[in-house]
Design a protein that fits this description.
Strand content: 15-25%
Structural class: alpha+beta
Number of strands: 10
Largest sheet: 4 strands, antiparallel
Shape: elongated
Order of helices and strands: HEEHEHEEHEEEEEHHHHH
Number of helices: 9
Helix content: 40-55%
Distance between the termini: 19 Å
Radius of gyration: 23 Å
Length: 344
Amino acid sequence: MINIVTTILITVLVFGALILIHEFGHYLFARLFKVSILEFAIGMGPKVFSKKSKKTGIAYSLRALPIGGFVSMVGENGDSEDEGALHKKPKWQRAIVLAAGACMNLLLGFVILVIYVSLSPALGSTVVAEFSEEASSYQAGLQTGDEIISVDGHRVHVLYDLSYAIARHGTEPISLTVVRNGKKIVLENVSFPSYTEMGVVFGEQDFKVTRIEKNPVSVLYYAYHHGVTTVRMVWESIIDMITGRYGLEAMSGPVGVSSAIGDAASSGMDSFLILIALITINLGIFNLLPFPALDGGQLLFLLIEAIRKKPMKPEIEGLINAAGLGLLMLLMIVVTVKDVIGFM
């Protein structure tokens, strides 16, 4: 069992690495588009070491706190006469620079999933192998050897897709499209058992599937669909929180995530990798939301600028971002307090 000090250390390093990779995405495309950069820092807080490039003028710094990093670009607030300032670049270049951080998080998630799938002892298909006792899906007409290709209208390719689709949509009778003896068949009103976790009801798969032959192609295929489904899961979870399907009890702040990371690290490398992949994909999707203080909020301002044919006043944009940051901090405090109370 990992102790609390080790858990905190692992959590800080994980989030530090994910934030640093995010910032490196911004830095990489800012350099590509010749945006003037003041500093690229590893870590936060006071400087421990800094060296300024004679060629580019960029200060590369190491800071005291190992919690991510940042890239400081000229003209981020639209207040510079420098020809290399971010706000003077074409809108499509600015959009790419703004989105690059989140995209790096998503790319990292896929890379981690490739590693995770490579280490997995077996890959699951969508072909039914056997049923549990008194399986309700069998009673509804599903048979051994059926290849499930769609769950309630949602295409599935691998076991992860299939399990998620049943968990999300299988709380009520649904339709399954299967391939049986070379022909497509639609099974209506297929029921699955259900279970409740953190106040949310999920459908439960009541059958096992056959294995996919493991090779480089199948690993990439499985990792790709695992990643696409994870992106959809994160996006749908955000929508569910907004619409009320998930309550506050289903949300986790730094304390809850730290506990989950500690548990995953104790359980083994596979559990740890899958959780880190989920966290980095979550960070990528969340940062693209059109909310002030997030990269998606800056992209929204850029869209408004394109429609209005002129930028928003920096002081107004700053106030909106400050208000958005305040709301995010308030939400984080509320969720953290909930996590702490849950551990008491």
